[in-house]
Amino acid sequence: MEGSDTTQSLAGEKVFPRAGLREWVKEKIFLGMSPREYARSLVTPFNIVAALIILAGLPLIGLRFARGLGAVTNASNVQPWGLFLAWGLFSGVPLSASGFVLGMVVYLFGLKRYHPVVNNAILIGFVGYFFAVVFLLIDLGRPWRIYYPIMISFGPASVLFLVGWHVFLYLSCQFLEFCPTIFGWAGTERLRRRAQAMTIGLTIFGVILSTLHQSALGAMFLLMPGKVHPLWYSPYLPVFFLTSAIAAGICMVIVVSALVHRLFKGRRDPHWTEKLNELTLGMGKAVAFVLFTYFGLKIIGIAHGNHWDLLGTSWGYWFLTELLAFVLLPCLLFVIAVQKKNVALVRFGALLTIIGVIINRLNVSLITFDWNLPHRELFNWKEFMIVVTIVTIEILVYRWIIKRMPVTPEHPEYKVDY
Amino acid sequence: MDRPISRRGFLKGVLGSAVGGSLLGRPVQAMAANLAKRPDHYGILSDLTRCIGCRRCEAACNKANNLPPPEVPFDDKSVFEKERRPDAGAYTVVNRYEDPKTGQPVYVKRQCMHCEEPACVSACIVGALKKTPEGPVIWDGDVCIGCRYCMSACPFSIPAFEYFNPTSPRIQKCFMCYQRLSEGELPACVAECPTEALTFGRRSELLELAHERIRKDPDKYIDHIYGEHEAGGTDWLYISGVPFEELGFPTDLLTTPYPELTHGFLSFVPIVLVAWPALFGGIYLMSKGREKESETETIGENEREES
Fold this sequence. Notes:
The structure holds 2 protein chains of 2 kinds. By secondary structure, chain A is an all-alpha fold. Chain A has 2 domains: 1-34, no CATH class; 44-409, Formate dehydrogenase/DMSO reductase domain (Formate dehydrogenase/DMSO reductase fold, Up-down Bundle), CATH 1.20.1630.10. Helix content of chain A is 70%, strand content 0%. Chain A has 17 helices and no strands. The longest helix of chain A has 36 residues, at 270-305. Chain A is globular, with a radius of gyration of 22 Å. In chain B, helix 3 packs antiparallel against helix 10 (260-306). Chain B is built from 10 helices and 9 strands. In chain B, strands 8-1-9 form a 3-stranded mixed beta sheet, with helices on one face. In chain B, a hairpin with a 5-residue loop joins strand 4 and strand 5 (137-139). Chain B has a single domain, classed as Alpha-Beta Plaits (2-Layer Sandwich), CATH 3.30.70.20. The interface between A and B is large, with 64 and 67 residues.
């Protein structure tokens, strides 16, 4: 279908060989292989494991829709949110801040040398938001009403209302931001240029939306002073969430770019290979600044609530673990790595940072939630299995796109023309 | 009615407004609505010194709201061995505690507190939960999407969810028999109570009554009306002879209304919406300008070199 559309709209433009739809599909979808060759190429150890995970997970997702949320989760009337939101929304969205941060740096601040990673950053963001919505669809009691806050009934005094609107708008925004890459892949040059022309506007829009909803995810917990542990609860939660999301977004670009570089050798071009090390060091430097700021803010948070005494409790040790091992340590690692030009160390620091942000979001939304109740179960294996399944699908979707579209290697003809 | 702006009227206004507008200006308006004088809601005063733990309120509630039959019959006192909480099948439950001084049983009926300014209402993404001008906090099943933010927002952890209902799970809690109220009847539990442990009336009158009882019999009561200030004030009030912390009541609550906790953030939203395009647009133009400048400089230098 895509192919025929393209052929029509591009009459006269020389985009792909005129051999027709079949050739186009072979080239663009089957990576230049015949369907049989392609099917054979799919049988890899990774794919087999992924298939097994998905086969195990799908029945559980079916069970959720057949018997209700209670059949697959440990959610209760006092612990209404489980792993689906703690992972899918509260952790997934900050990890997807990559698109807005890199877009802002490259297109608005004019640091064009980061252009080689910006498309990948936008793709990571887009896929992340898309799957945050998938998690929402699994978690909502009545998922078919997911559009209600947008079209049917409004709760404007709710922070969640803001989050809902923004995730919806930002998902659309990121799709449009990614369109130049899609059209570049499809070979529709005129459309690609038109999409490219929107970049600056979309980037500014994305920065507005991201500033607001990344912080709004933290603001959601402002309503729960007695439920979130005082070490994690703070009136500064919105600022904490926004700052750490910026760090997480950049670190996702560092780590995922490194993985793509290693795993998909066919997706390198000279530009990418040459520059990646240098860019990784540059991004490491930026994250060091962000993490240092975040560390300072967290200390201010403790001082503001005067919770120093709580640091000596077992919750305090857990808090210090999060703060020292996953914020301060990577911050120092980045400083050392940048000085010694040690790219591998930057990547390790980035991985620590990502884990740290996930731990933080799980702490706020799940682990410390209702911490003073005597008996709590955080999540069960079915819930966990569904999360693993969705994440596996997420990785497969990302890989499908990265193997086909000009995300990491820039199209030679389209370099820096914004 | 000569009441000031009600929340319902406010919400109606919002529903009628354009989508874009509702994104921009509403949070500030919500604040203004809260600053308006509160109407004198209906409420219920629960006098724990009078409750005998007969559980007839539970039975009446069950019948009035067509709830599923209980696992343990309502006349079975064995339920008191475990502390219970309201859930999707029971809007209210009575728990038994012990007076630490006398060893006598103290019975506490738990249900939605019907906050004056409810956290759940401010949390609801679709405005399904509403504070009626009469007082009850009600829920609209036609728009609820089942996000359960009301549950995590409630400082009393009251709203319950039908976790095993895959097609139309409801948020369940006491609605102060809103239907019966609008037909001029008392809430079912109040009508049924044989010892007048529950009194229905205007909140201001109930507070007066509570103060009077405490004043008249200071040995019998502790000097605390639970709900007068908790969570910014609730329409359900309690007086007791035993300190509330001994009776499973949350006592670490704020005395400011919970929705105020997010007001500061929400009022920041329009500022970002207006200021960020200018700020980041400006940054873009500056970086673009600098780029052009350096380009012309380079060109100029090249020309000089050539000549």
